[in-house]
Amino acid sequence: MRQGLRNSRSIWEGPSGPSRLLAVAILALAAFAAASGSRGAASRSITLEYTAGGVLLVITDDGTTIRTSTAPGAVISPGPYQVIVNNDMPDLRDIQHGFRLQGPGVNLQTDLAAGDDKTELFDVVLAPSSTYTFADDQQPSVPHVVFSTASSATAATTSPGQTSTTPSSGTTSNSPVVGSDLKPLPFRGKLDASVAAGGKLSLTAGGSHVLKLVSGRYKVTVADRTAKAGFTVQAVNKPAITLTGLSFVGTRTVTVLLRPGQWFFYSPAGTKSSFTVVS
Length: 279
Prior knowledge:
Blueprint lengths: L1 E3 L13 H20 L6 E7 L5 E5 L4 E2 L7 E3 L2 E9 L11 E5 L2 E5 L8 E8 L4 E6 L8 E5 L12 E2 L23 E9 L5 E5 L2 E2 L2 E3 L1 E9 L6 E5 L5 E4 L5 E9 L2 E6 L6 E6 L1
Parallel strand pairs: 2-6, 5-11, 13-17, 16-22
Antiparallel strand pairs: 1-8, 2-3, 3-4, 4-12, 6-9, 7-8, 7-10, 10-11, 13-14, 14-15, 17-20, 18-19, 18-21, 21-22
């Protein structure tokens, strides 16, 4: 189940007072969203993670882990983001979920196709000076995560509740770009990816370079050793999936759905390497 709701209402009572401030704020938010959308695809990403230990986390593309449950939480830049919703709980121990990211301009809800998909991608625009909550509505006992946005991209600060650990992690416009509406894919195994200190990328399975894979869900572990390159995978004519951003250094594990077709892995502005996924 997935739905995206964007509801706003302004009340104008006269030339002064709270209603005028509310209307001005709504107009400013709309202008910010329109301007952000005109810039094209998001260059940053955040991961909404449900770990194998049953914990909710929000992870930025530089590897910062946000765990706070009270506002304001960690403060990140506003603007467009690619959001990775990832469920790392093994199938045998998993239960039903109702993941939700909610805040000004965003009301993303997904059950990851009732457990058939472990990862979905979305695009969102996070408004400035706002607070957002990531929760699992089907598991109210699991602590939710709260984070905030700065007033501008240059005003983002570090706050208590965020760490620089390298978590195991698995991405709101409110429409998925990974096909949860298609036939669910089985888990196929693990892949190893690396970003060398010099920027060279590799993708291997069992020690051999990947040239052809059977379609399915794969757990990709990326060892990224430089802040000057990242690791992205992309199917032909499909949105890119950022596994590690340019500023990330460390190890990250992401569950990725690989459907039949031609795929590439690359670092932004770098050379693309191809592999084929077959049915």
